[in-house]
Specification:
heterotrimer, A alpha/beta, B mainly alpha, C mainly alpha, A: Rossmann fold, 2 domains, 4-stranded antiparallel β-sheet, B: two-stranded antiparallel sheet, about 70% helix, globular, binds adenosine-5'-triphosphate, binds magnesium ion
C-alpha cells in the first residue's frame, strides 16, 4: 500500500447547533485520488477547510506526512506541502495569469519574503511558474489579466497556482463546477495526471468524473461518512444507494 | 496609459535638482516649509505602504510620528542637545515596539474593526501623553536644543541651521522613497500586495499573511518615526496633538490625494495638501471649510488621486476613466475577512 | 469611599454609560445596516449640543431645543444621505473615512462661523433644576436623574423598535444578511436613508441631553466619537444589545477609573478594549466574519 500523505481522525465541526462535519476520518494515499461525494450541505467543503486549516475542528486531528498539523495555520500547512483549490474560484484577479502563478511559486521559495531584489525577475521562480502554467494547459494566456480569463480558464489557473507551490497533497473542491463539457474533459485529464507522486482529495458532484478518476471513494451525508472504499464497493453499498446515489444514477 | 517612462524620469530628475538647489534661492521661511513638507511626505509615503500596498486603513499612523518626537523630547537633557546616535535609535526602537504591539492586536481584526481599533489605539497614545505627567501633560514639552550629530568631537551637521536641516530632511525623504520602492518591488512587497488582493488565496499558497502585514505595519511606523524625530527637532516642541487621530486622517488625505498606486503619489499628495493649506490659510479665514469641501470632492471626483489625473493627461482615448481597481477603491475593501 | 459617595459615582457611571449607549447605538446601526463607517458621528453629537445652546438661548425653552435640535439633525441626516452617503455604500472603507473626515472639517468650521469657539452652558429646564439631598454633605442633581430615566426610556423604545416592529425586523434581517432582505423585496434605499438620519439624530440627541450637565465646547465630539467607537468594537458591529453592554462597561470603567486612577483613567478604557479584542476579535456580541 502506498504511503499515507494526509490522515484525518475523528474530525468534528459544529456551527452553532448544526454539526457540519461529524466524526470524519479519512486517509489520502500517494499516487491516488480519493474522491469525496455527497449531497449539497453534506459537509464536504467544511471537511476540506478543516484539512487545509481554514477552520479549526472542535474535535479530531489532522496529520500531514505523519506530522500532527491540527494546530497549524493554513499557511503553515501550505508550506508543509498542502495545496488547495476552492469551490468558488480564488485567484488574484487584478494581475496577469503569469503573475498569479509566479506568486504561487514565490510562496514556497526560500526567498518568499525577501526585502530586496525584483520579485518579477527570479529565474527559478519564473521557470517554476511557467512550468505550472504549461502543466495546467494555460501557458498561452500567460499575459492575460486573470479576470479576463473564461470561467474554465480561471479554474485551470487556480490549479496551476496550486501546482506552482509543488504540493505533495492536493485538495480540490469541485474543480469541474460550472465548466462546459470540453473544458471538463481537459480538467479530468489534468487531475488524472496530477496524481503521480502526489495524493489528491477530490470533492466533486460530477459522477462520471468521479468514477473516471477515483481510486478511493468516501460518501458523506449530513456531516457523516456513510460509506468508504473502492468505487466498486461504494457502488454496491445499499446504504449509499438509498441515501445518495439513487437507483437511476447507476 | 501612464506618462512615458523617459519623461517621468527626466521630470523627477529635474525636481531633485530643484530640491537640491532650492536653498540657494529660497528664503528661510520657504526652506522651513519645504523641510516640514518633506518630513510629512515621508510619513504619508510610509502610510501608503500600509494603506495602498497593504490594504489596511490605519488611523494610528500619526501616533507613531508623534511618539518618536516625544521620545526625543524625553531623551533630551535640559541643558544640551541629545546625541542623535543614541536618541534616534531609541526613538525608532520605541516606535517599533509600540507599532508591533498595536499591530499584533489590531491585525487580528478586519475591515471596519481594524479602522476602529487603530483609531482607538492611536487615541490611547494621545491620552497617555495628555493625561499623565510623563511629558508635561496637555501643555506639551519643549526641546530646547536640537539633537547633536557629532563624530569624534566634530560636529557633522548642525540641525539648528535651517539649510543643513533642509538637506537632512531631503536626505531622509530620499532614503524613505528608496526603502519603500525597494520593498514594494521585492518579494516581500509582492506578498504584501497579494495578501491585499486576496487574503485567503495568499494564505493558502503559504504566505504568512499576519506576519507580512505586521512587518509592513512596523516598518512603516519606523519610517514615520524618523520623520517624527526630525519634525520634533525642527519645531522644538511636542504636544499630544502631534499624535492625535486628526494627524492620521490628514495623512490619509495626503495619500489618497496623491494616489495610492505608486510610491511617489503620497509624496506629491503631502506637498499639494500642505501647499494648499498654506495658501488657504493666508487668504481665507474659514479655510478649513474649503479644505473639507475639497476632501469631499476628492472622494467623489478623483478617487484615484492626482496621479490618476496625470495619467489621464497622457492617456489616449481608449483608456477608461475610472478603472474599478484603481486607487482609493481598492484599499479597505479587500481587507475584509 | 463611603457608601453614599459610591452610590453617587455609580449613578454617574450609569448615566455616562446610558448617554454613550444612545450615541453608540446610532453609530452601530449605521455600521450594521449601511456598512458605512462614519467618523463624523461625534461631530453631530457636538452639533446637537450647540443647537441646544442656540435654540434654548433664543426661545428659553429646553424642550424646544430638544425637539428642534433632533429635528434639524434628522433632516441634515436625510440630506447628507441623499447627497453623499448613498453613493458611498459598497465603496471601500477608505472613501468612507475620507468623506466623513471632510464632513467633520465642514461641520466644525460651520459651527465656528455660526457659534464661535467659546465654551457655553445650557440651563436645564426649570422643573428639573436643583438637587436631591442624599446625606448632609452629598446631593445629586435632579437633571442627572431625569437624564438617566430619559435614556432608559429611549433605550426601551430602541429595543422595542428593533425587537417588535416591522422596521426592526428589517433592521435585524439587514444586519444579518443584506441579500436575503433584498430577496424579500425590501427597499434598502429607504431603510438606509432613515437609518442614517436616525443614527445622526441619536448622536445629536445625546449631545443635547448632556448639554445641561457638561459644557458645550468645540472638542466635545472628538472624545465622544472615540468612546463610541470603543463601545461598538466592544459590543460588536451592528449589535445594539452589544452597544448597550459595551456602553455600560465603558461608563463604569471611565467613571470609576477617574475616581481611583485619575492619571490613567482614559487609558483604562482602551486597555479594556485591548483585552476584549484579544479575547473576541469581533466584539462581545459580534458575529464572526
Ligand atoms: N461558516 C459557516 N457558518 C455556519 N454554517 C456553515 C458555515 N459553513 C458551512 N455551513 C453549513 O454547514 C453545512 C455544510 O456545508 P458545506 O459547505 O461543507 O457543504 P458541501 O457538502 O460543501 O455542500 P455543497 O455541495 O453545496 O458545496 C451546510 O449546512 C452549511 O450551511
Ligand atoms: Mg461545498
Amino acid at each position: 500500500m502506498a504511503d499515507i500523505v494526509l490522515s484525518a481522525r475523528h474530525l468534528t465541526k459544529r456551527f452553532g447547533g448544526l454539526v457540519a462535519v461529524s466524526d470524519v476520518s479519512i486517509d489520502v494515499h500517494r499516487d491516488e485520488i480519493h474522491a469525496v461525494i455527497g449531497p449539497n450541505g453534506a459537509g464536504k467543503s467544511t471537511l476540506v477547510n478543516l484539512l487545509s486549516g481554514e477552520i479549526t475542528p472542535g474535535e479530531g486531528s489532522v496529520h500531514l506526512a505523519g506530522k500532527d498539523m491540527t494546530a497549524r495555520s493554513p499557511d503553515q500547512r501550505a508550506r508543509a506541502g498542502l495545496g488547495r483549490s476552492y469551490q468558488k474560484t480564488t485567484i488574484f484577479p487584478d494581475v496577469s495569469v503569469f503573475a498569479n502563478a509566479r506568486l504561487a511559486a514565490q510562496a514556497r521559495s526560500p526567498k518568499a519574503l525577501r526585502f530586496f531584489g525584483d520579485a518579477g525577475r527570479d529565474p527559478v521562480i519564473n521557470a517554476q511558474a511557467a512550468a505550472a502554467l504549461s502543466e495546467a494547459g494555460i501557458a498561452a494566456h500567460a499575459d492575460t489579466p486573470a479576470r479576463h480569463l473564461s470561467h474554465g480558464g480561471q479554474r485551470q489557473l487556480e490549479i496551476a497556482m496550486v501546482l506552482a507551490t509543488t504540493p505533495s497533497i492536493l485538495l480540490l473542491d469541485e474543480p469541474l463546477a460550472g465548466m462546459g463539457p470540453a473544458e471538463a474533459q481537459d480538467m479530468i485529464a489534468l487531475v488524472s495526471r496530477l496524481r503521480n507522486g502526489r495524493g489528491i482529495l477530490l470533492v466533486e458532484h460530477d459522477m462520471d468524473a468521479v468514477f473516471a478518476l477515483a481510486d478511493r471513494l468516501t460518501v458523506m451525508a449530513d456531516g457523516h461518512v456513510i460509506a468508504t472504499g473502492t468505487p466498486a464497493q461504494v457502488r454496491a453499498d445499499p446504504a449509499v444507494r438509498v441515501a445518495y446515489l439513487g437507483e437511476d444514477c447507476l | 496609459m501612464t506618462p512615458p517612462r523617459a519623461l517621468t524620469r527626466s521630470l523627477l530628475a529635474a525636481l531633485l535638482m530643484a530640491a537640491l538647489l532650492l536653498p540657494m534661492i529660497a528664503p528661510t521661511y520657504y526652506l522651513q516649509f519645504f523641510a516640514k513638507a518633506m518630513l510629512l511626505a515621508i510619513v504619508a509615503a510610509s502610510l501608503n505602504l500600509v494603506v495602498g500596498f497593504g490594504g489596511m486603513v490605519s488611523l494610528c499612523h500619526g501616533a507613531f510620528f508623534g511618539l518618536a518626537g516625544y521620545v526625543l523630547a524625553l531623551a533630551s537633557p535640559s541643558s544640551s542637545g541629545a546625541s542623535l546616535w543614541t536618541s534616534l535609535p531609541l526613538a525608532l526602537l520605541v516606535v517599533a515596539i509600540a507599532a508591533a504591539l498595536v499591530g499584533a492586536l489590531a491585525l487580528r481584526t478586519r475591515g471596519i474593526y481594524f479602522i476602529m481599533a487603530t483609531l482607538a489605539f492611536g487615541e490611547m497614545f494621545f491620552y497617555f501623553f495628555h493625561d499623565t505627567r510623563v511629558a508635561n501633560g496637555s501643555d506639551g514639552i519643549y526641546i530646547y536644543f536640537e539633537p547633536e550629530i557629532v563624530i569624534a568631537g566634530w560636529r557633522l551637521v548642525d540641525l539648528g541651521n535651517k539649510t543643513s536641516f533642509y538637506y537632512v530632511a531631503l536626505a531622509s525623504l530620499l532614503l524613505a522613497i528608496i526603502v519603500i520602492s525597494t520593498l514594494v518591488r521585492s518579494p516581500f512587497g509582492a506578498a504584501l500586495m497579494a495578501a491585499r488582493d486576496n487574503e485567503q488565496r495568499a494564505r493558502s499558497l503559504g504566505f504568512p499573511v499576519f506576519r507580512i502585514r505586521l512587518t509592513a505595519f512596523v516598518l512603516a511606523a519606523v519610517l514615520a518615526g524618523i520623520a517624527g524625530y526630525f519634525s520634533a527637532s525642527q519645531f522644538g516642541f511636542v504636544a499630544p496633538q502631534t499624535l492625535g487621530w486628526h494627524v492620521s486622517a490628514t495623512l490619509l488625505i495626503m495619500v489618497v490625494l496623491g494616489g495610492m498606486k505608486s510610491v511617489l503619489g503620497p509624496v506629491f499628495g503631502a506637498f499639494v495638501l500642505l501647499g494648499l493649506e498654506e495658501i488657504l490659510k493666508s487668504n481665507i479665514e474659514h479655510w478649513k471649510l474649503i479644505e473639507g469641501v475639497i476632501v469631499i470632492a476628492l472622494v467623489f471626483m478623483l478617487p484615484g488621486g492626482l496621479q490618476h489625473l496625470a495619467q489621464l493627461a497622457f492617456s489616449d482615448r481608449r483608456a477608461p476613466a475610472g478603472q474599478p481597481g484603481s486607487g482609493a477603491s481598492r484599499a479597505g475593501r479587500q481587507h475584509h475577512g | 469611599m463611603d457608601i453614599a459617595t459610591f452610590s453617587v459615582q455609580l449613578l454617574n457611571a450609569v448615566q455616562h454609560g446610558l448617554v454613550l449607549f444612545l450615541v453608540a447605538s446610532g453609530l452601530t446601526l449605521v455600521f450594521g445596516i449601511l456598512g458605512v463607517i462614519n467618523l463624523a458621528h461625534g461631530a453631530f453629537y457636538m452639533l446637537g449640543a450647540y443647537l441646544a445652546y442656540w435654540i434654548a438661548g433664543y426661545t428659553g425653552s429646553f424642550a424646544l431645543a430638544l425637539v428642534g435640535g433632533v429635528a434639524i439633525a434628522f433632516l441634515l441626516g436625510l440630506v447628507l444621505e441623499e447627497a453623499f452617503v448613498k453613493r458611498l455604500i459598497g465603496r471601500d472603507h477608505l472613501a468612507q473615512v475620507l468623506l466623513s473626515y471632510g464632513l467633520i472639517l465642514v461641520i466644525d468650521e460651520v459651527r465656528q462661523i455660526l457659534f464661535g469657539k467659546d465654551v457655553h452652558s445650557v440651563a436645564p429646564p426649570a422643573w428639573l433644576q436643583g438637587s436631591i439631598e442624599l446625606t448632609d454633605v452629598l446631593s445629586y442633581p435632579v437633571y442627572r436623574l431625569a437624564l438617566c430615566i430619559a435614556c432608559l426610556v429611549l433605550a426601551g423604545i430602541i429595543f422595542f423598535i428593533i425587537q417588535k416592529t416591522r422596521l426592526g425586523m428589517i433592521l435585524r434581517a439587514g444586519a444579518e444578511n443584506r441579500d436575503m432582505t433584498r430577496a424579500l423585496g425590501i427597499s434598502f434605499d429607504r431603510v438606509n436613508r432613515y437609518v442614517f438620519a436616525g443614527g445622526i439624530a441619536l448622536a445629536a440627541l445625546g449631545g443635547i441631553l448632556v448639554a445641561p450637565i457638561s459644557t458645550v465646547f468645540p472638542g466635545m465630539g472628538d472624545s465622544m466619537l472615540i468612546l463610541s467607537f470603543v463601545v461598538v468594537v466592544l459590543g460588536g458591529i451592528g449589535s445594539v444589545a452589544g452597544a448597550a453592554f459595551g456602553a455600560l462597561l465603558i461608563g463604569l470603567t471611565d467613571t470609576f477609573g477617574k475616581v481611583f486612577f485619575p492619571q490613567v483613567s482614559s487609558i483604562l478604557v482602551y486597555l479594556l478594549m485591548v483585552i476584549i479584542l484579544l479575547w473576541r476579535p469581533n466584539g462581545l456580541l459580534g458575529r464572526a466574519s
